[in-house]
Amino acid sequence: MRTDQFQAPDYYNLDDLLTDEHKLIRDSAREWIKKEVSPIIEDYYERAEFPKQVIPGLAAIGGFGPYIPEEYGGPGLDQISYGLLMQELERCDSGLRSTSSVQSSLVMYPIYAYGNEEQRKKYLPKLATGEWMGSFGLTEPDHGSNPGGMLTNFKDMGDHYLLNGAKMWISNAPFCDVAVVWAKNEEGRIHGLIVERGMEGFSTPETHGKLSLRASATGELLFDNVKVPKENLLPNKNGLGAPLGCLDSARYGIAWGAIGAAMDCYDSALRYSKERIQFGKPIASFQLMQKKLAEMITEITKAQLLTFRLGQLKNEGKATTAQISMAKRNNVAMALDVAREARQIHGAMGITNEYSIMRHMANLESVVTYEGTHDIHLLITGMDITGIPAFK
Ligand code: TGC
Ligand code: FAD
Q1: Which CATH number belongs to the domain containing residue 59 in this structure?
Q2: What does pTM read for this prediction?
Q3: With 70 as the cut, is the pLDDT of residue 57 above it?
Q4: Tens digit of pLDDT for each residue in 218-241?
Q5: Which domain holds residue 145?
Q6: Ligand 2: which of 50, 145, 208, 379 to mutate, judged by most atoms within 8 Å of the beta carbon?
């Protein structure tokens, strides 16, 4: 079993900008991961299985709804704490962060922000402890980057809604207890519905054959004349802006998370390069190796500063969709570059599961696609700076 020797790079003393509470939250998460998750993650990744036994621990470190107020069972933390938690989780594995992101930003957030008091009280406390796990159904087989074209629909049957359609590529779907599902009403307006496992006609088949994000369960959400009680409709926001608002929160978490994956790759590469001897010297003594390491730490540091500032804006309620989009795109692309360079530094060892590099690299291929592809985020920045949407 591999020992987790991770030491976090902090080239610009970012720690000085964190509060004692931030550091406590981050360090507790790091300690829990080293003890409970790092020793098992490679095994679960190889088996293509999510390690469900980590759910209570994830809840205990505040990994489910970090910023949800205490009155609904959340820890009521600020946005920088949320970001630091995502950084630590993805430092271990993007799939671990995904499980937390989906539960927090894509299930708890819409229930908190768009739900009524009964819905908040019914669902949020159980989601915060992990007693219930949730999923978020936006993407469909024929509508990924263009969710506004979705076909999933519901009809008003008087005393209930009748839901039909299919969602695909849904994280946590195979074991979710509840799903926040986006569907069109008879006028074509998008609404969020809470669908519960056990409702007749609702099934969640698992998607197999993934070569990325293997320690996260992905599946479909299928609705065949599902009777959804009327009280399960999220009443306080509708239209495409409702699911996109949830994505703002999840993309923000990914911006932090991707830095964690990059930090792990860099830390491993730095250590390996000082230990590995070729031509009678540590490979870290070669100029080309130092160029790689110097560029890696520079890009990580730039991403850390960008994201910390974004966290301040988010705490002040001022972060825009376009600012969040830029950080998601930049940091994931940065992490992929860092992972590829780190893989080279490890030579042949880099392709084995003795190191986390190849797993991070494969995971990041999902992260660069989900929550808006790299190119969709370029177009979001393009639209923001020119005022001209170029999606269609
Ligand atoms: P567009 O016409 O631009 O916008 C429709 C309406 O939505 C409003 N809006 C937003 N509102 C709140 N928050 C945001 N972030 C918003 N972005 C847009 C917009 O103002 C408009 O409102 P209104 O009142 O004028 O109608 O929409 P479009 O159809 O042209 O599409 C734009 C586009 C392509 C940027 C968008 O649809 C998009 O972001 N596509 C990417 C899809 C995506 O990211 N899917 C993610 C699925 S979930 C997932 O991947 C989970 S992965 C698991 C994990 O997180 O770990
Ligand atoms: P497409 O939209 O078909 O895109 C294919 C290519 O075309 C991309 O390169 C894209 O950038 C490009 N493209 C598309 N439109 C344009 C354009 N206008 N201009 C230029 N280029 C364009 N979704 C959920 O709802 N919930 C989840 O929990 C969830 N979890 C996921 C987990 C994993 C592991 C993965 C891989 C995906 C998950 N998704 C989830 C789906 C994810 O959000 C979509 O895969 C993503 O939005 C892209 O959609 P698509 O795969 O259909 O690609």
Answers
A1: 1.10.540.10
A2: 0.97
A3: yes
A4: 999 999 999 999 999 999 999 999
A5: 134-232
A6: 145
